[in-house]
């Protein structure tokens, strides 16, 4: 029993020593510690964007209303996961929401709805000139 305690204590001390040696090296590599005055400039605040979406579930039906108050176009997509293993989960077509616009997205399951969420992406496709 005494040998086990001694071995456990030795392993604990060794792991603390190794961690104490690795932390400064990790901070230096991450750029948190460096030459005096060599601090990186602060990152610019991103411009606000993205539609605000509200979802509701009534029985087996899902409805989401998304409103975009920002000047950039946002692309939203409704995702519905059904509670039953045999019920097919669904993803709506992505919809572009222009500035100041509101869209309605809907979907349904055969039985109960498990979860619902909306994903956002910046507009990535551009209309091609004919």
Can you walk me through this structure?
This protein is α+β, with helices and mostly antiparallel strands and 130 residues long. It has one helix at residues 2-30; strands at 52-58, 61-68, 74-82, 90-91, 95-97, 101-108, 113-122. A hairpin with a 2-residue loop joins strand 1 (52-58) and strand 2 (61-68). It is flat and about 65 Å long. Mean pLDDT is 78; it is low at 125-130.
pLDDT < 50 stretches: 125-130
* Tally of strands: 7
Q: Note the main sheet.
A: 4 strands, antiparallel
The structural class is alpha+beta
Approximate strand percentage: 35-45%
**Number of helical elements:** 1
Order of helices and strands: HEEEEEEE
Please tell me the overall pLDDT: 78
Task: Measure the end-to-end span.
Answer: 83 Å
| Helix content class | 10-25%
Shape: flat
* Gyration radius, rounded: 26 Å
Which labels suit this protein?
130 residues; alpha+beta; 3-stranded antiparallel sheet; flat; disordered C terminus
Short recap of the structure:
By secondary structure, this protein is α+β, with helices and mostly antiparallel strands.
Write the layout of secondary structure elements.
Elements lengths: L1 H29 L21 E7 L2 E8 L5 E9 L7 E2 L3 E3 L3 E8 L4 E10 L8
Antiparallel strand pairs: 1-2, 2-6, 3-4, 3-5, 3-7
């Amino acid at each position: 029993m005494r040998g086990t305690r001694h071995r456990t204590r030795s392993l604990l001390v060794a792991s603390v020593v190794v961690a104490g040696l690795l932390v400064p090296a990790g901070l230096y590599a991450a750029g948190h510690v460096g030459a005096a005055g060599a601090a990186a400039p602060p990152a610019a605040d991103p411009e606000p964007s993205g539609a605000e979406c509200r979802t509701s579930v009534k029985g087996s039906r899902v409805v989401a209303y998304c409103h975009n108050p920002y000047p950039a176009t946002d692309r939203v997509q409704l995702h519905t996961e059904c509670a039953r293993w045999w019920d097919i989960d669904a993803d709506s077509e992505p919809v572009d929401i222009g500035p100041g616009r509101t869209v309605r997205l809907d979907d349904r399951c055969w039985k109960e709805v498990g979860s619902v969420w909306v994903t956002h992406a910046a507009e990535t496709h551009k209309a091609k000139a004919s």
